[in-house]
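Fold this: Pyridoxamine 5'-phosphate oxidase family protein
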Amino acid sequence: MAEKEPRTALDERYSSERAAAVAWPDAVTRLARAEVYWLTTVRPDGRPHVTPLIGVWADGALHFCTGADERKAKNLRGNPHVALTTGCNSLAEGYDLVVEGDAVAVRDETRLRRLAAAWEAKYGSAWHFDVRDGAFVNPEAGAALVFEVAPRTAFGFGKGEPYSQTRWQFP
């Protein structure tokens, strides 16, 4: 997937006077380096479900995996709209990111092999996956479906001085 160039805007209502909008490539660097993301899906009854997970940034999207019988996979069968967040637990420093979009299953095995290599490169050999039948396979953990979330809208929150809120909207 080609990287799309978003419309970038600083929301001055939530930003310090000397704040500036963060460029999307800088946000992508932060997204790629993050180790833990929080995924929000929607249960069939409309209640949110939030869970931490690991993932990789590749091909212009965040990718995560989950077992077919896990709550998040069940939720995605009925509603693909998700939010992925990452950042830090500090108010006075750091940068938080929110990516909103639709979770789309990745089934192409050539692409899955590239993603499996990216997982292992980022998280180490404990996160080695083989690829079979359009899914990741780990001998100890079983099969995992892989999803990509191309950003539709993303938000960045700079904390500390200057505070900032950047919004990226994708065509």
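Residues 7-169 form a domain with the Pnp Oxidase; Chain A fold (CATH 2.30.110.10). The chain has one domain: 7-169.
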